[in-house]
């Protein structure tokens, strides 16, 4: 007799009951859209009531999941299909940004609605920026009036810091640029932004996201010039933006020129070639001799590894500058250029502590090399110096300046005797 207990048969493929909260909810914006549209139809054009409705609805509806649907409805009245057209099979409302009045006051009120909503539900911030980026890519699908309203709203939001200027990247889309949509949109957007704040707000925000040098990209490659940009935006009443872009272009050109000069010096190119190249670039970029001598000084002082010991760096600087005296002389033909160079030397010696005691020796060297004139040195000493290290540098220069004055007096008396 078998005393062992017989094993009970087991069922395979056992089914476990899944809790409802663990089931992945299907993405279905239909019900969400109907709730939002119904609420907007009830509040109508009363934007205070719209803000209150959106605030209260966030507790009942899944804003996090359906953020794109929510913003589509608030802007266009319904869900947007790719390209910017409204989806046919969806409920829509006539109360949205695109059907509102096309004036600044109404757009400011709409900006407040979005601002309150995002302040209340902070998690919508990223989704809202993504929505604006998408809407800018859909510009061709909107009417001129819809684009104008969107441009005004975007300008207000940028001015108030509600969104990052990085959203403007969408305007560099090749198709939008080619058809002139980007430039026309930018006119309305920047006009509103400057009207709300000022050009400094625009400049600061663009610099923050590295877009301060990219405004030319609003135009096709064959029109991407400072002259075209300046004319287009000046004619549209945005001279401030034209001046800013021109200045940025000039700064960019100067940085590139400085980099190129440093490379030429590091390679040991002949000075005559460097002078010819620099004069050509100066003419091409319409730079003054004062600007040019500042660029050259920076390039000359940046193309060498300086000794960290104060007693050795002076000797190294004199030897190095002697080598480039011909280049410096070629761009100090005017008194103002000589003064610009003196101020650059003062600033450099002040900012680089190892050079503090080298100032006088550098000036004397450049005087002997005919780069700096007696008149320029005396003008700098008497009235045109910077405040940076003023007493220290003036004290250093005292004996040499006295010698210059005595030499000048002797020269004058000799002339009188000759007469």
From TrEMBL:
GO biological process: regulation of translational initiation
Residue ranges annotated for the W2 domain, each copy included: 247-414
Keyword presence, Transcription: yes
Domain of life: Eukaryota
Signal sequence segment: none
InterPro entries: ARM-type_fold, eIF5-mimic_regulator, HEAT_5MP1_2, W2_5MP1/2, W2_domain
Location of region: Disordered: 1-28
Keywords: Activator, Transcription, Transcription regulation, Translation regulation
Pfam families: HEAT_5MP1_2, W2
A cellular component term, taken from the record's GO annotations: membrane
Comp. bias regions, Polar residues: 1-15
Family per record: Belongs to the BZW family.
Protein name (database record): Basic leucine zipper and W2 domain-containing protein 1-A-like isoform X5
């Amino acid at each position: 007799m078998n005393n062992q207990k017989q094993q009970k048969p087991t069922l395979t493929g056992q089914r476990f009951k899944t809790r409802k909260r663990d089931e992945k909810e299907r993405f279905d914006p239909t019900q969400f859209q109907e709730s939002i549209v119904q609420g907007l139809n009830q509040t109508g054009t009363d934007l205070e009531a719209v803000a209150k409705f959106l605030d209260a609805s966030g507790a009942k509806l899944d804003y996090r999941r359906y953020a794109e649907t929510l913003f589509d409805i608030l802007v266009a009245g319904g869900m947007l299909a790719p390209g910017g057209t409204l989806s046919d099979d969806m409920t829509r409302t006539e109360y949205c940004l695109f059907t509102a009045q096309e004036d600044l006051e109404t757009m400011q009120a709409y900006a407040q609605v979005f601002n309150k909503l995002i302040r209340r539900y902070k998690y919508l911030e990223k989704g809202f920026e993504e929505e604006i980026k998408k809407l800018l890519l859909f510009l061709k699908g909107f009417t001129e009036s819809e684009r104008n309203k969107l441009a005004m709203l975007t300008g207000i939001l940028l001015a108030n810091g509600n969104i990052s200027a990085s959203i403007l990247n969408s305007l560099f889309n090749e198709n939008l640029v080619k058809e002139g949509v980007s430039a026309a949109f930018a006119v309305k957007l920047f006009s509103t932004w400057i009207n709300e704040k000022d050009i400094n707000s625009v400049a600061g925000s663009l610099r923050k996201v590295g877009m301060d040098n990219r405004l030319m990209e609003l135009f096709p490659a064959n029109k991407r010039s400072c002259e075209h940009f300046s004319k287009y935006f000046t004619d549209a009443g945005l001279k401030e933006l034209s001046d800013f872009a021109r200045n940025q272009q000039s700064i960019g050109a100067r940085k590139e020129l400085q980099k190129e000069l440093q490379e030429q010096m590091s390679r040991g190119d002949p000075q005559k070639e460097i002078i010819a190249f620099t004069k050509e670039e100066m003419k091409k970029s319409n730079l003054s001799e004062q600007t040019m001598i500042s660029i050259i000084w920076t390039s000359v002082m940046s193309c060498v590894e300086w000794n960290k010991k104060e007693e050795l760096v002076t000797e190294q600087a004199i030897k190095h500058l002697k080598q480039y005296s011909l280049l410096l002389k070629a761009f100090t033909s005017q008194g103002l250029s000589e003064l610009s160079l003196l101020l650059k030397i003062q600033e450099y010696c002040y900012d680089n502590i190892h050079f503090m005691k080298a100032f006088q020796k550098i000036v004397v060297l450049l005087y002997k090399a005919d780069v700096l004139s007696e008149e320029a040195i005396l003008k700098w000493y008497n009235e045109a110096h910077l405040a940076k290290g003023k007493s220290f540098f003036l004290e250093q220069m005292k004996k040499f300046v006295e010698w210059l004055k005595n030499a000048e007096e002797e020269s004058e008396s000799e002339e009188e005797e000759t007469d």
